[in-house]
Every structure is written in C-alpha cells, then in structure tokens.
Design a protein that fits this description.
Elements (H helix, E strand, L loop, with lengths): L13 H17 L2 H30 L12 H7 L8 H17 L5 H8 L6 H30 L5 H9 L8 H8 L5 H19 L4
Length: 213
C-alpha cells in the first residue's frame, strides 16, 4: 500500500490517520446510498481534475513554462532513453521492459469493467447507459493512462536519483511518485504537497468501492 502520509512529517502517528480513514469509509458505506453516491461524485471529480491538471502541467514543462525556464521537450527520450532494458540487454531487454510495465500497470484499471457491471443494478435505464459507459471506458483509458504515462516520461528521467531511491528502498511513499518528483525538479514550490493531498481523495474513493460486495 502506498503510504502517502509518510511524505509529510510524522508528528501525528500513522495509526491515527488510518483510524480516521476507516471511520469515514465505514460511515459512507453504512448510511443512505445518496451520501455514498454524492461522495463518489466529488471524489471522482477531484481525480479527473487532478489528472487533467497534471497533464496540462506536463505540457507546460515540455515547453519550458516552469519557474526554472528549462525546456524539457523529449530530452529524457534521448538520455537515458525512452526504453530501458530489463532483465536482459539490447532489444530483447527493452521488449521485456515494455511488456513487464504493461502487465503490472494493468492492475490499475482491471477492476473498472467490473464496477460498470456492478452498477447496472442501480443505474437508471441500464440498457441505454451501461453500453454507453462501457464505450466511454476505452476512451478514458486511452486519454488518462496513455497520456499520463507520456507526461511522466517527459518530466522525469527513468534514472532519476529520487525515483530510483524510491524503487530500490522499497518505500512506496508519495516521494517516489514520478509526478511529485517532476514537480520538485521543475522548482515549483508547494505543488507537490497539493498533489499529495489530492491523492487522499483517490484513496477514499478506491477504498469505498472495494467494499462493495
């Protein structure tokens, strides 16, 4: 589990934050369904605004619009390169790296089709709306995941010290997030904390829908 709280000073024990999170999640799931639906609407809105904002930020940094005026372009595609070998050297290693990344990232969205099916029982006019939601899922996948991955490859090098430290140490906290690292490298003060705070709502949303039987 990604420990977003460890990105900030640990003056408050992690157990306190876990208790608060669990209390809110349980409350959203035991009270009237309208409260749950309203909360999911706002959580989803924050997620969409957050990822769209990060994509726009990546475009701005691509053209050198950051505080340090450093035009990134596709610099990191040249050095260290867009594809880094994995397990083996040469073209075979790059192919393995691509497929390994694709398979692992698949877990991030594999639950979404299931949620569409679960929502059919509570959806107005399911024969019309469920097929519409299924078709839009493919478009959202292409936009958010593929474009988001493209932005990450632009703003952070694959051999960045902070990124490798997070991977090698096994500490999956917010400090290892490529978006946070890219923001810090661009010299944007305070935005990394805003992104980290916004991701709390994503955790609420994910934890809430996973409690559905």
């Amino acid at each position: 589990m990604v420990n977003r709280r460890s990105y900030w000073p640990k003056s408050v024990p992690v157990a306190v934050w876990i208790t608060i999170f669990l209390g809110i999640i349980v409350a959203l799931n035991i009270f009237v369904v309208s409260w749950y639906g309203e909360s999911e609407f706002w959580f989803a809105s924050i997620k969409i605004l957050g990822i769209v904002g990060l994509i726009i930020l990546g475009i701005v940094l691509f053209f050198g619009g950051g505080p340090n005026r450093d035009r990134l372009g596709f610099r990191y595609w040249q050095k260290p390169g867009a594809f880094i070998p994995f397990a083996m050297s040469g073209t075979t290693g790059k192919s393995l790296a691509f497929w390994t990344g694709l398979i692992r990232s698949g877990y991030a969205f594999v639950m979404s089709p299931k949620m569409i099916a679960l929502a059919a029982g509570e959806t107005e006019a399911p024969r019309r709306n469920i097929p519409k939601a299924s078709r839009r899922f493919v478009h959202r996948l292409a936009f958010f995941y593929i474009l988001g991955t493209l932005v990450i490859s632009v703003i952070v090098a694959s051999n960045d010290d902070l990124l490798l430290h997070g991977v090698n140490s096994g500490k999956a906290d917010a400090g290892a997030s490529p978006f946070v690292i890219g923001i810090k490298r661009a010299g944007i003060q305070g935005l990394d904390h805003v992104v980290n705070a916004g991701q709390y709502s994503m955790l609420f949303s994910s934890a809430s829908y996973l409690t559905i039987p």
